[in-house]
Design goal:
By secondary structure, this protein is an alpha+beta fold. The chain contains 20 helices and 14 strands. The chain has an 8-stranded antiparallel β-sheet, with helices on one face. Strands 1-14-12 form a 3-stranded antiparallel β-sheet, with no helix packed on it. A hairpin with a 4-residue loop joins β6 and β7.
């Protein structure tokens, strides 16, 4: 790889990571700390009943607008997909969305020149217009930003590295806001206000967050490059009716979605009320930075432990164990009182499992794609994966409403301090902060226990079944890319070459019964001496598998071939495997398709024999074996095949 290419990739990763950092700083500010500003600082403490009434109006407006934005989201995705510019599909919206949303959030952290009290109705109208505008442009940025990974590179390894950089930036950005919020507010405030700061401090905080978020969007626009290709055309559009259809017919996806909806709403409420606890129960708002710092560090380590925990104990056990730890944290929080040490311990116990549960849900959600594919014969990948962000937004919308009402009911509004909150107010606050989330989390856990049955073993069985029947599910008509290939080559005959270096062995001697019996098709096997798998002919990738242990190809003359690495390697769930292609991609003979790490298979006790079968062999009249035994290198001729009869 050239130095220029390497430098370009590093620049792209760092730019995208910084984009994720600023993006999640903005989201954390909007979802958690803006409501704190509204309830505690936007109105003067002498406003009395009008104060509570305005907070109620604003809270209701925010909640309603968040629900409205859920309906708008599909149109946003459709608009981005249909955007064609010299800068690509996504970057214009990332930059535009980042610019507009950053400017508006700064304005929202003001009283708009006193309109909030002097002309309250005008303020509410302006607030509604500004908030929905900000939310829409933020959604443009959000959808555009996270859709960029496939456009940045078609290389799976590069995508994983880019996504990893983004996850690190995202985690730091989301948690660093909690670290800096009170120090910034207090530093720029004229009046410390019992450690809560004043409007000037909160405006300075919003200004800094807005500028950083805007700069991060500009960095994405300048530092990344979208790779255009026909592979990115004709994307499946997401609509609510389509999502609803996928949900209702895929029972595992439906029950998992209900589980996650209850769970994410519960944790969103408690997480959003933590700063209120530090401010109005402990009376030490500045100490909230300690908790945010702990969460930032622990979040990274928690993510890193997931693969080993899931492999050793299973995802279901990780889920239930995490819920137990989380509920212990909630119980400890209830009785922590004014002890900072106990509060920090309780909050950390509540936070640590969240990343683990999120990853469990994400893995099962991904597995439900294959579950639905096997059950209905159609792969709803984009629709299925669109469910989680919709549920996150739903939970956030409910949380915003609950937090605002809780602040009013508990008396935690402008001018209030820890000393002024009555025992009754504290009771209401703790009921909403701990009781409601605990009920929601338990309800979600019960749903998961009773209804979600899709585990690792079941998914391995599903992938194995899909592998056996993938060629039966193909469309009979050729797509445009195949037509192009037919126009360029003589498609009447096909020479199928060895896809890997190694020793040829008879297919009927391999340890995988479905291949040895001929059930999967006719072909050959190779005991590999190398872990790189190459295309045995020109064609199109017709099937990829989430476990990356196999790939299905269609040749220009209609021959269908499956390349399968190892015996029972589906159980490794992708560990030790890399895919360099995706479904629909054109490949030339000799292009690298997959790669596997032989020591990983040996350590796990799996045979690494590579099996190559022609699945539609019954339609091929002239099936000649050119080489039966001996050492081969990838590219050596092994089979000669006539055009399959229709």
């Amino acid at each position: 790889m050239s130095e220029t290419s390497t430098g370009r990739r590093i620049t792209s990763r760092l730019s995208y990571s910084f984009g994720a950092f600023g993006h999640d700083m903005f989201y954390a500010t909007l979802s958690t700390y803006f409501i704190m500003f509204v309830t505690s600082h936007l109105f003067d403490k002498d406003s009395g009943g009008q104060n509570a009434k305005m907070i109620g109006y604003i809270t209701l407006i925010i909640m309603v607008l968040r629900f409205v934005e859920l309906v708008i989201d599909p149109f946003i995705g459709n608009t981005i997909d249909n955007t064609n510019s010299r800068w690509g599909h996504f970057k214009p919206w990332v930059v535009a969305g980042g610019t507009v949303s950053s400017a508006i959030i700064i304005i929202l952290f003001t009283n708009m020149g006193g309109l909030n009290t002097s002309k309250s109705m005008l303020y509410l109208v302006l607030f509604t217009v500004l908030y929905i505008t900000m939310d829409i442009f933020y959604s443009f940025k959000d959808v555009g930003f996270w859709s960029m990974i496939p456009a940045i590179s078609f290389d799976s390894a590069e995508r994983e590295k880019t996504a990893t950089f983004a996850r690190v930036g995202s985690n730091i950005g989301a948690n660093i806001v909690g670290v800096v919020v009170m120090p910034i507010v207090l530093f720029f405030s004229v009046n410390s206000n019992s450690g809560q700061g004043d409007n000037r401090g909160w405006f300075a905080f919003a200004l800094i967050i807005g500028v950083v978020a805007w700069l991060s969007a500009i960095a994405v626009g300048i530092g990344t490059k979208e790779n255009d290709s026909e592979l990115r055309q004709n994307k499946e559009k997401t609509s609510f009716s389509a999502v609803l259809k996928v949900l209702t017919r895929n029972d595992q996806l439906m029950w998992l979605s209900l589980t996650y909806c209850l769970y994410t709403t519960g944790i969103a409420i408690l997480n959003s009320l933590e700063l209120y606890y530090f401010t109005y129960i402990l009376g030490k708002a500045a100490e909230f930075s300690f908790l945010a710092s702990l969460n930032a560090v622990i979040g990274i380590f928690s993510v890193l432990t997931f693969p080993s925990l899931a492999q050793k104990f299973s995802r279901r056990n990780v889920f239930f164990s995490s819920i137990v730890v989380m509920l212990i944290g909630v119980c400890l929080f209830v009785f922590a009182g004014h002890s900072l040490a106990l509060v920090l311990t309780a909050a950390v116990l509540f936070y640590v499992p969240q990343t683990l549960i999120f990853l469990v849900v994400l893995m099962i959600l991904s597995d439900s794609v294959e579950y639905g594919q096997l059950k209905f014969g159609h792969r709803d990948e984009s629709l299925t994966l669109s469910v989680r962000p919709l549920l996150d937004k739903f939970g956030g919308a409910v949380s915003n409403g609950v937090v605002g009402l809780t602040a009013v009911w508990a008396g935690m509004t402008s001018g209030a301090t820890a000393g002024s909150i009555t025992p009754h107010g504290q009771m209401i606050f703790k009921l909403m902060m701990f009781g409601v989330p605990a009920i929601l989390i338990l309800a979600g856990t019960f749903t998961f226990y009773k209804k979600v049955t899709l585990d690792e073993k079941e998914h391995a069985r599903i992938v194995d079944e899909l592998e056996k029947t993938w060629h039966e599910r193909l469309e009979t008509d050729d797509d445009e890319s195949m037509a192009d290939i037919r126009a360029e080559v003589d498609a009447e005959t096909l020479t199928l070459t060895a896809p890997v270096d190694g020793e040829l062995v008879a297919l009927n001697t391999v340890g995988e019964s479905t291949f040895a019996s001929g059930q999967m098709g006719q072909g050959f096997a190779i005991k590999p001496s190398d872990g790189r798998i190459f295309a045995p002919f020109d064609g199109v990738v017709e099937a990829t598998f989430p476990t990356r242990h196999a790939v299905g190809l269609r040749a220009a003359n209609g021959t269908l071939a499956l390349i399968h690495i190892g015996v029972d390697t589906v159980k490794m769930r992708g560990t030790g495997f890399i895919s360099y292609v995706e479904k629909g991609q054109e490949v030339k003979q000799g292009d690298q398709l997959l790669e596997f790490w032989q020591p990983a298979l040996a350590k796990a006790g799996y045979d690494d024999t590579v099996m190559v079968v022609v699945t539609n062999y019954k339609a091929i009249k002239d099936f000649k074996v050119l080489k039966e035994t001996g050492t081969v290198s990838h590219g050596d001729n092994v089979l000669s095949l006539s055009k399959p009869e229709e």
